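Tokens for chain A. Residues wanted.
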């Protein structure tokens, strides 16, 4: 009753009676929407839920997405939403393999938040990818499916960017500095890694050659986060607040980046991590965004009255207690 009163509307009379309309906290909800490069929206038919970290399958037909600490699959054509993960209290951050056969993700099934994967058809159960007892978040696959970039968040210091080789299941550090660096995204040709770093004092997007050696190129100019590549490899997207930005990229004969330009601006869910809280269609022309929806509470159907509420309060909590 106390929680309902605090979250609802109440009034206390001069005689000590309490009248209140019960209220309740509601979870934030989003809708999956397509947004084209000009900012025009087209909602998907999926119901509003607490979606997080949507990821399109390589063929663009399905969406893997977090809902309530588990991963679900939404079939765009059939308009069906089905649960994908069941083992472990928390399974998050889905990352499709390039062939679309498996999905890698973070799971606490065996204690620490480690890297697992599972067949996209749900068969076979979870398979752990790393044996180290560390907390790791997956980010992107190389186009041949042999490398998986991830971030180790175990250290009390800044997280480091790592790459897992699937040939021998060995992890190698790629970038470890005092700065906070994450969001590693393999370019479609596998020769470059885009990432976000606060080394300048604010979050910006950079690109480095993979596996190196070589310097880095700053892509964003006025802050940047959540980088994703266009699948043609000639464009890099990122977000600056509510703005979706795009930068033309050329890698021949050497790496060059064009001037950032704004595609659209709108209030869509951001992410607390560098992991993009959106995805890009296979043709690079549309963005799968999460649009917050305002929760509409049903009109009150009753007003509850507690007579002599102040006297009851004194009995339950005597003065001086």
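Reply:
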């Amino acid at each position: 009753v106390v929680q309902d009163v605090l979250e609802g509307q109440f009034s206390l009379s001069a005689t000590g009676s309490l009248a209140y309309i019960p209220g309740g906290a509601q979870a934030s909800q989003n809708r999956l929407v397509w947004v084209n490069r000009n900012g025009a929206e087209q909602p998907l038919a999926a119901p509003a839920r607490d979606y997080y970290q949507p990821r399109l399958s390589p063929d663009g037909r399905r969406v893997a997405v977090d809902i309530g600490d588990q991963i679900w699959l939404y079939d765009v054509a059939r308009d069906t939403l089905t649960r994908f993960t069941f083992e472990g209290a928390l399974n998050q951050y889905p990352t499709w393999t390039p062939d679309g056969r498996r999905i890698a993700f973070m799971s606490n099934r065996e204690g620490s938040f480690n890297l697992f994967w599972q067949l996209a058809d749900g068969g076979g159960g979870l398979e752990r990818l790393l044996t180290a007892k560390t907390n790791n978040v997956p980010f992107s696959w190389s186009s041949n499916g042999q490398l998986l970039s991830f971030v180790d968040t175990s250290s009390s210091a800044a997280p480091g960017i790592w790459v897992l080789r699937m040939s021998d299941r060995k992890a190698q550090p790629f970038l470890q500095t005092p700065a906070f660096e994450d969001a590693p995204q393999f370019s479609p040709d596998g020769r470059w890694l885009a990432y976000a770093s606060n080394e300048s004092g604010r979050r910006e997007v950079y690109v480095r050659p993979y596996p190196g050696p070589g310097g880095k190129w700053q892509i964003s100019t006025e802050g940047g986060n959540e980088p994703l590549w266009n699948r043609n490899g000639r464009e890099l997207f990122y977000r600056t607040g509510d703005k979706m930005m795009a930068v033309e990229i050329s890698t021949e004969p050497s790496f060059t980046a064009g001037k950032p330009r704004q595609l659209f601006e709108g209030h869509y869910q951001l992410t607390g991590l560098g992991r993009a809280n959106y995805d890009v269609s296979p043709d690079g022309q549309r963005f799968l965004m999460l649009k917050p929806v305002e929760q509409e509470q049903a009109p009150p159907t009753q007003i509850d009255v507690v007579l002599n509420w102040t006297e009851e309060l004194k009995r339950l909590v005597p003065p001086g207690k």
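Confidence is low (pLDDT under 50) at residues 1-8. Helices lie at 2-7, 309-316.
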